[in-house]
Amino acid sequence: MATALLAIGALTALPGWAREPQRAAPKKAVHTQRTAAKATRAVAPRRAAVAAAVPVAAKAQVAQAARSDQAETRLIRVYRLTAQGRTEEALAQAHTLVRDFPNFQLAQLALGDLLTARTRPLAQFGDVAAPQPEAGAVLAELRQESRQRVAAERLRPAAGAIPAAFVEISDRTRHAIAVDASRSRLYLFENGKQGLRLVADYYASVGKLGIEKEFEGDQRTPLGVYYITSRLDAKQLADLYGSGALPLNYPNALDLRRGKTGSGIWLHGTPSTQFSRAPQATDGCVAIANPDLERILNTVEPRSTPVVISSQLHWVTPQGVVGERQAFNQVLDAWSKAKSEGDLQRLLGFYTYDFQGMRSQSITELRATLQEDLQALRGRTLVLKDKSALHWQDSSETMVVTFAEVPAGARSGPVKRQYWRRQGQRWQIFFEGVIG
Predict the structure, then answer these.
(1) 268 is annotated as an active-site residue
(2) What is the residue range of 279's domain?
(3) Which one of the listed residues 95, 175, 285, 391 is annotated catalytic?
(4) Catalytic positions (predicted)?
(5) Could you tell me whether strands 286-288 and 266-268 are parallel, antiparallel, or unpaired per DSSP bridges?
């Protein structure tokens, strides 16, 4: 049986995948040829997806299958079996995958190719004869989705590695999320006694025109450090957003400082007719498959969960951020000490001249606010609790810091978020606000 299905190239680059030489496909019965042609036609136009809408029973079946095994894992297994020449096993598993996930277009495309390979050699992945322009565009998107999924399998982060942006995560923050746009991948971390641990990663779609959002309606996904602000139930939303949504705090203080506009950037699901979307398909949001989103919806806490969206994540060992954390904490401790000691002039030295706080508070207005804070402290030591620090670097270097500011002897205090900018060897605050 032909193995030319693997003309998508990247598949054979997976470790341990043997590629057999192509050989002529044996002749099969007319029924097989018709079945192959039918399957191939079914996956080409996205207008049909699986039949315009997925029945309620099929949706329940999808959810049930998602609990037992990830659809992507099973698709990669089909690829792997095909690469090893075990095409009958691959075909059987592809049939089961499509049955369990009837709206998984990429799985349907693989099934169609496996059926077609029974009748003739394949020229490429998604080998559809003379597709219409619309279908051709869909095929190109599916091929790119396949490449991204395979690359994520082949280029997995090292065991125990974390994104360098996660300099410090508060013990009270149970989860953190990182998105690598270059890999079309979302990574979910659990924060426990031993620190951050990668517990899941999912294929993700970003903006139609890519990343680096600048203004309203540019169909790009923003890059930076964000926080989930709330949770939206599917009942509140159109079918486009799938199982629900987690809005992000775009534009953040750094975005506003740079004059960026727009709003409504969410992490959300997919329409009922699509298991997943093309790598670049949204109006700027990050979209993942509904079963994956449901896990996140049931896991993370709004307001405390950070989401870092990067063009390409930089992975380090947990020890790799210790030096940076210690160095920055020295700066933060110096700021806290100046405030505890009531030294207004020294305290003001930690703020940029063009500081702009909440409600466009200027450095002059900040001076009055800080004076009130110092009077309220009455010389008590300030304790910073539940501290998180997330590092962001592009054309400049920023540290996003969140903590509870608790005077000695008090049980609680305001939760504040600061944005620090590094200029040379000096860190200064360009935004500070109370968030809780």
Answers:
(1) yes
(2) 162-315
(3) 285
(4) 268, 285
(5) parallel
d(CA 301, CA 220): 26
When divided into structural domains, the chain yields a total of 3
Q: Taking the mean position of all CA atoms in its chain, how far away is CA 403?
A: 25
Q: Are residues 282 and 263 in the same domain?
A: yes
Residues 139-176 as b/e (b if ≥16 CB within 10 A, e otherwise) read: bebbbebbbbbbbbbeeebeeebbbbbbbbbbeebbbb
Peptide bond into 251 cis (omega under 30): yes
Answer for the pair 3, 19: CB distance below 8 angstroms, yes or no. Answer: yes
* Token reading at 299: 């896991």
Q: What is the CATH number of the domain that holds 185?
A: 2.40.440.10
What lies within 8 Å, CB to CB, of 141 at 6+ separation is: 278, 279, 281
167: nearest Cα among 189, 192, 196: 196
Residue 141, CA distances (Å) to 71, 81, 281, 337 in order? 18, 23, 9, 55
Boundary (domain end) residue, out of 289, 315, 341? 315
**Would residue 175 show up in a list of annotated catalytic residues for this protein?**
no
What's 127's DSSP letter?
A: -
Residues 249 and 264: their CA atoms lie apart, in Å, by 9
Tell me: do 253 and 337 sit in the same domain.
no
Q: Which positions ≥6 away from 150 have C-beta within 8 Å?
A: 8, 10, 11, 13, 14, 76, 79
> Could you read off the pLDDT tens digit of each residue along the chain, which spans 436 residues?
344 344 343 344 444 443 433 333 333 333 333 443 444 444 433 333 333 333 444 444 444 444 435 899 999 999 999 999 999 999 999 999 999 999 999 999 999 999 988 988 888 887 777 667 778 889 999 999 999 999 999 999 999 999 999 999 999 999 999 999 999 999 999 999 999 999 999 999 999 999 999 999 999 999 999 999 999 999 999 999 999 999 999 999 999 999 999 999 999 999 999 999 999 999 999 999 999 999 999 999 999 999 999 999 999 999 999 999 999 999 999 999 999 999 999 999 999 999 999 888 999 999 999 999 999 998 899 999 999 999 999 999 999 999 999 999 899 999 999 999 999 999 999 999 999 8
Q: What is residue 351's three-state secondary structure? A: strand
Of the listed 95, 268, 314, 391, which one is catalytic? 268
Greatest Cα pair distance, the chain, in angstroms, is: 90
Residue closest to 72 by CA, chosen among 312, 288, 300: 288
The residue with tokens 């001076």 is: 367
Number of H helices, E strands in the chain: 11, 17
